[in-house]
Structures are given as structure tokens and as C-alpha cells.
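Job type: complex structure
Entries:
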Amino acid sequence: MSEPFPPTIAQASREIRAGRLSPVALAELCLARIARHDGHLRAFLLVDAEGARAAARQAEAEIARGQWRGPLHGIPMAIKDAIDTAGLRTTFGSRVFADRVPAEDAEVVARLRRAGAVMLGKLECHEFCLGGPALDAFAPPARNPWNPEVYAGGSSSGAGVAVAAGLCLGAIGTDTGGSVRIPAALNAIAGHKPTYGLASNHGIHPLSQSLDHPGPMAWTTEDCALILAAIMGPDPRDPATLGVVPRGDVASPGAEVKGLRIGVVRNFSDGPDLGTPEVNANLEEVAATLGRMGARVSEVVLPDLWDYTVANTTIMSSEAFLNNAPWLRASPEKVSAFTRGRMFLGSFVRAEDYLRAQRLRRRLAAATREAMRDVDAIVCAGMLAPPAPVASMQKFYYLRRPLITAPFNLLGMPALSTCTGFDAQGLPMAAQVAAPPLDDALVLRIGQAWESATPWRDRRPVLPA
Amino acid sequence: MDETSPPRALDLEAFRALAAANGLRIGEAELAELHAAHGVLAALLARLDAPGIRGQEPWPASAAEAWERGR
């Protein structure tokens, strides 16, 4: 019989602090689950069992001495392999960097360690955060625990799979067009892309600097809030980090929507070649439920989703090629065909189109702000369609359909993906909650309220023995 | 697109020349596939020609600043 799923971070933290749960036992539970399930799931690129055991022993001793550091003390977590970890191989998911061992932690990892988190290892990511799901990549894509044949999302795929399968309690991913929220949606977990600049990108392989966001991924929104509170804050080594604090209490945002004005964005998913009927029915159900919970729900019409997508894709493609040009030119044979093609495409974007995309971005910010004038936050679908079988996915599929996660990268708005049910095939469905920059606590509050009022956090994937 | 701008879509020969100028080492099959994808992208980029984009200020470093400045 398999080991039980671990508790949430919030539950585990309360038990650890009260002396009823041993961080060493919790780390051993995760290591046992990894040993049992990860050969099939492929979420981890590297497991640092000895490092995790040492950190768990240290946490246990500190807490026993009364030196409790906070809610992440003794909590087993794992890190996307695009993020540097001192002394632990960090490959960016590419054979170009198969032997790279950074000397220094990324800022978000350093903050997690200072908060007492126990690092279990490194998680599979699409090559350079762009290339998946590529079957010829350095590491094959992680498998979706709800159905191993379908896409698990990306590029923080290992993070989504590891959290959903209970191999770790929380993870850090990165999000440039949806890479935290897409795997969160497809694995039925919570994933939060913070306000741009709230958490440092120092020590994270850049895909597109003006769109990149590190963010927490966990089973619940409550846990994402605890992680975000630990990793956020200004960093002199990342000039894009903000010198201001977000509104509200990020660590304890509350779980109440009564009286909040929430706008439902139907036009992102309801239209020709947009969301499936099941996706739109699910969004209506979310809106109705929020209304029954006491929110004042109205419709908000935002600009055409393709406008956000085209601006995001233009900027991301150009910056991604620039960031990766040295190895793309010198040793393209080491890069998977998916990554190589997508990166090469960025080299053909004209400077004037890049600049027009940045101007369109400004225009969309103004239009979005104006459309949201009478609401506190918005909700929209998490994905437009169920995940495709991995074997059927095409290199340039992302040029054929708009990306419903992209608007919030483009505008730097905080956006959360949370589970909103399961479709007829048993695959997870999700909604996004978004708000103006620095309203991360508000977004997390709505997500937490949603999860408290609905049954979706009680359902876990059934894993092969 | 401005009247002075060259077209975004390129024929295969022009695309091959630009790939070489960009320093890309690429086989013929991959080049043809990339050329087709570029045609799709070029059509999407027509959205950047919408009236009113030219007069916009460029994006600043801070999303919060953009949000606040627009008030």
C-alpha cells in the first residue's frame, strides 16, 4: 500500500510547531513517495535525499529549541530546474547545461532556505522554459498524474506534477506566458503568478525579462500565500523588483468574498475558436458560486485575447532568442527540435514589431484598467481546452490559439489559477483570478474563499502502485 | 504597417538568407517548417498595425507604475 498524501503546508506547519509532526518524518514521507512514484511521473530531475534529510534534522532541532522560523520551517519543497540552487545541478532542462552546478542560490531559493524550508531537489522543466513538451529533450516531459498520456502543462511541468502527486508540499515555478498557471490548471493545484517585480528573478535563467515571474505552486491557495510571503521583497540584484509592499496581508489574506466586486471575463473564452462549451459552462458555474458566496458579480469585457497574446508572443520570442542565442548558434544540435524552432522564430521578429508590441502593451494596460474600473478583481477561465495527448502536440501549436494566461504576464498583474472541477474525462478544470498590480492578497483571498467553499481540494489523483 | 516598412512575410529564399544572416545553422526540412510558422506569425503581427499604437508611450519597467500613471 502506498504512503498517504502529505498534509498541506498550513496543516503541516501547525503540527510541526506544536511538536506533533516531525520534519524528519515529513521529509521521509516525501522521499518515500518520490521513490515509489517518480519513476513513472518523471517530475524530478534530481533528488537530494541526503541534503533534505540534513535540513529536516536541522529544522527539527531548531524547533525543539524554540527557534521556529515561520510557516515554512521544516516543510519539504522542490524547485524548478530553471532556478539556481547552490551545489545542486541546475540544467534549465537542456543538455547544453547538463553538468552545470551553480555556486550560489537564486534569491527566491535563498529566501526559502532562510525560512527553514527543506529542499528535496530539482523539478523537470521545459527546455529553457520554452521548449516542451519535447520528447527529444534532455529530460522527457513529466507525466500528468490525472492521465499520463495527456500534457501536464509547462514549462513548470515537474512542479505541477510533483505537487499534485504529493511528492512535495510546495514548489517554485516561473511564469512568462502561463508557466506556473498552466501546469497548476492541468494538475488541479493552485499556482500564483505574483505582481511583476514582487519576487526576484536573480539566479533564474531568463526567458523574457519583462515578462518573467517566479511564483509559488502548492495544493492550496493558502499554501501559495505562505510561500509568496517568504519569497517576495526587493532585491538589489534584480533592478525590476519593487520597493513597495503589496496591499493587504499576503501571508494571511483571509477567505471571504462577501461584498467584493468580481468581474467575469467571458469574452476571453466565449467565442469562435476560443473555449470549449465545457470550459464556458464551468466559468458560469464559478460565477454563480461566487455570487452565492456573497460576491457582487458582474460582467467585464476586456480587449480581444489575441491582442494580449500577440504582444506577449512578440516580446517573449525576441527576448528569448537574445537570451539563448550563444548556444543556439554554437551548438544547435544539443537543443531539442521544439526549443530550437521556437527560439529561432524569435530571431525573425523585427525591431519595429518588438517596439510596437511594447506600445500595444501600454494601450492594453490602459484599456484593461478602464474596463476594471468598477470591480475589485476579475475571474476568467484557466485554460481554453483540455490538455492534448503529448504525442500529438505540434512544435508551433501556440501560434494557432490565443493564450488565456498571457494577459497577466503582459500587464504584470497578480493572477492565480485554482481548480474549479473536473471534466467529463476526469481531467482538472481551472479558473484564474486576477487583480490590479500589488493586489496579490486580494487574489489569494478570493482563491482561498473559493477552495473553502468547494469540494475540489478533497480529490487527489489515483497513482499507479 | 507603415508604407515605408518592408513586408513581414518573406519568400523562402529571402527567409533562408535572413536565417543565415542571423547565424542560424538549420537543415532544409527545418527551414521549410520554420518558414511556414513565420508566415503564421507574420499574419498575427498585423494586429500591431492597428491605429493608435504608434502614439502610445513605451512600456515602463514597473507594471505598478504603468497602472498608476494611467489614472
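Summary: Chain A touches chain B through 52 residues (CB under 8 Å). Chain A has a mean pLDDT of 97.
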